[in-house]
Amino acid sequence: MDFGLSEEQRLLAQTLGRYLEVSISPARVREIAASDEGHDAVTWRGAAELGMAGILVPEEYGGIGLGMLDAVVAAEAFGYHCAPVPFLSASMASVALAHGGSEEQKRVWLPRIARGDAGLGVAVGGHVSRREGAGIRARRRRLHGKALFAIDSTAAAGFLVATDDARVALVSRDAPGLSIEPLHTIDATRRFSELQLESVPVDGWLEGHEGLVDLLIDAGRVVLAADMLGASQRAFDLAVAYAGERKQFDRVIGSFQAVKHLCAEMAAELEPARSLLWYAAHAFDAVPEEASLVAAHAKAHLSEVGRFVVRTATEVHGGIGFTEECDAQLFFKRVGVARSLLGTPEQVRERAGVIQGWVAA
Amino acid sequence: MDLSYGPEYEAFRQEVRKFLAEHAELARGGGMGMGMGPPSDRAREWQQLLIERGYAARTIPREYGGYGGEPDLLKRVILDEEFARAGASPGVRGQGPDMLVPTLLEHGTEEQKRTWIGPTIRGEVVWCQGYSEPGSGSDLASLQTRAREEGADFLIDGQKIWTSSAHFADMMFCLVRTEPDAPKHAGISYVLIPMDTSGIEVSPLRTMTGGAEFNQVFLSGVRVPQANVVGRRGEGWKIANTTLKHERNMLGSSGQLEASLQRLVRLMERETEDGVRAIDNPIYRDRLLQLQARVLAARYHSMRLLTCNLRGDSAGVAGLVVKLTGCELSHQIAALALDVMGELGSLYRGSRHLRDGGAWQFQHMFSLGLIIGGGTAQIQKNIISERGLGMPREPKPKTELG
After folding, report:
1. d(CA B332, CA B340)
2. Under an 8 A CB cutoff, do B292 and A260 touch?
3. Are B358 and B348 in contact (CB under 8 A)?
């Protein structure tokens, strides 16, 4: 009986944390966020050298072939540093290709992902929620329609696109008929686009796994939950540190119970949520019959905990928390976007209800 | 991650399961009604059997009447799980076996250990805890119950509150101010008091649930030998605090929360309004799912804390949040149960149309009591922020109590 991170996983967290500490300071985050691409190629390349880009890529395809719990440890570190890197799409694409890709698709894409080269953006949001007429139809190996919120779109060399009939297609970035329009969210450390597809030729289908879209979304939810945990943890750490320095009424504000109790409430929300997330990651690899349910719960719960923590951490900072200069706002925005990505908490919980047979057909 | 227990422990689990199946009748009858009375003969018979098997008093040395086993946290967890699964009574529990006995083992004299531990774990002597006072709740160390010396005895005067079991307890372990001139925390002693001593009056404390789960205890001129002090005079505060580490709920067992959530799901599948089941109402269902995520988080959190314990790692702040989050969650589960019943949720004992015997209203009120008792939610937040996060303590007021 051992429920926790292994020595190797703790070391991984430490190593990646130290690297990101140096490579991507909050000042650098702001610089990248202000750029057109919004993608820190240098940091991503360095992370790839540590094995992080290919963490879920099997060793035979150039990755380090670790499990979802390892990916979660890495995702938490990326969230903690608000890193503008395509870890989410890399994880989702690795899972999709490893489970559903043909041998050739694996040989082409997995080593690229593991090296930290331009990889695959992921456009599966229509499978969770459709707005603005989104939807992808496939006719004779061509795709028609549009997809909102294609993940990590600016640095991608191609896209995984989920169709309305729940298949997953590979599409090149330069495919004829594909237009990529940027969407500007509050969080410029992640980039999204709207894909418009007019008779776009499919490079190939990922057909090797039944229910691949759901698997891909489960993976994305677990990784996003971990990113939110990391971002919330950072906002919380910033708040506790600030409360220990800032003086008002001749005392550090952290000695006032009104402030201390806010910090205690954040800790009380974060720690059990972390345990839930660890289990969701473990189940993804080892308990398939529970994996979708706990992935949904982890995503929804971290969204709720994340929102509470980033707003409370901002409040602990007082007026300075509302300024651009305060780092807390970076994490407020990171969580703000992740919350609704791949399903709002309400949508994701409804999915958890469906899985348990609690929703009348 | 390895969530299996391994062959040795699975064998132990099977052994426990077999034992419980063989003794199903006694296991169910061997309960000790919560705070309602002393253990019955059947309960003591059950307890005796459990001690012989090492399923109770497992780590208490043999010379004091225990099983004399090595501490083994996993076996403890398996016992808890299997007893809960079988609906079996865990034997004689309460403040005697759970709090006094570990305290005596650590701080008691040889004579105190020999006199009290055996009868306590066998359920022959029932204890109550005399800590809180009307004027000393969160600030427990300000307690005013005083002992005057008279020869080899103490004469004790004062008042205790929130003493569950006092109306049938044989003994009380009690914090008493014995050194009036010492500073607040250094003037307290931990004293064992027979409840049949003259000068003790117990009166029930009726709570909002309609029951009297607690008592007030009035002490006037209660004569106790000074030899009944555990540890040294003036060290009672320290001794009471070391006992707290024995509190089993520090592991944050989530079994009760899981069971409570299961009952809520069944209620929501049963309860209908205009022919629609509560669970088919998306608003109620979403609230249920929010609570389910929290119960799952509590479940895996307790496994994480258990692992920290097994590895000998400190859980840090993660270990300090359990009381705060667990009591709140229990309250919220009951609150949703009341809401899904609509007006019927307001019914209570004795009424027509009552559901589940009024258990949800009881849980809703009693869990609020638990949020307050044993260190209020606000005291918990002080502990989390000061001990867990290293935040500065509230500056001490200038005037110190003597």
Report:
1. 12
2. no
3. yes
- Using the Cα atoms of residue B189, residue B193, residue B198 and residue B202 in order, give the sign of their dihedral: positive
Give the pLDDT of residue B255: 86
Position B248 scores a pLDDT of 45
Is B343 annotated as catalytic?
Answer: no
For residue A201, the model assigns a pLDDT of 98
Given a cut of 50, is residue A182 above it in pLDDT?
Answer: yes
Residues 6+ apart with CB under 8 A from A283: A290, A291, A294, A295
Q: For residue B330, what are its two tokens? A: 């229990």
Angle at B222 between CA B219 and CA B225, to 5 degrees: 140
- Please tell me the predicted confidence (pLDDT) of residue B374: 86
Which architecture characterizes domain A212-355 according to CATH? Up-down Bundle (1.20)
Domain(s) labelled CATH 1.10.540.10 in chain A stretch across 7-118
For B393, the closest chain A residue by CA position comes to A255
Measured between CA atoms, the residue of chain A closest to residue B254 is A272
Question: What's the complex ipTM?
Answer: 0.97
Contact A276 B297 (CB under 8 A): yes
Residue B253, pLDDT score = 72
Q: Tell me, what's the pLDDT at B400?
A: 52
Instruction: Kindly list the structural domains of chain B, giving each domain's residue range(s) and its CATH number in brackets, ordered by start.
Output: 6-93 (no CATH), 127-237 (2.40.110.10), 248-388 (1.20.140.10)
Instruction: Output the CATH code of domain A7-118.
Output: 1.10.540.10
How many contacts (CB atoms, under 8 Å) link A and B? 152
pLDDT confidence tier of residue A361, bands split at 50, 70 and 90: low
Kindly report, as residue ranges, where domains of CATH 1.20.140.10 are found in chain A.
212-355
- CA separation for the pair B313, A36 (Å, rounded): 46
Q: What share of chain A in percent tops pLDDT 90?
A: 98
Pick A121-206's CATH classification: 2.40.110.10, 3.40.50.1220, 3.40.50.2300, 3.90.1150.10.
2.40.110.10
The residue ranges of chain B whose pLDDT is under 70 are: 30-35, 244-252, 397-402
pLDDT score for B362: 96
Contact residues for A56 (Cβ-Cβ < 8 A; gap 6+): A63, A65, A66, A67, A68, A71, A90, A91, A94, A95, A98
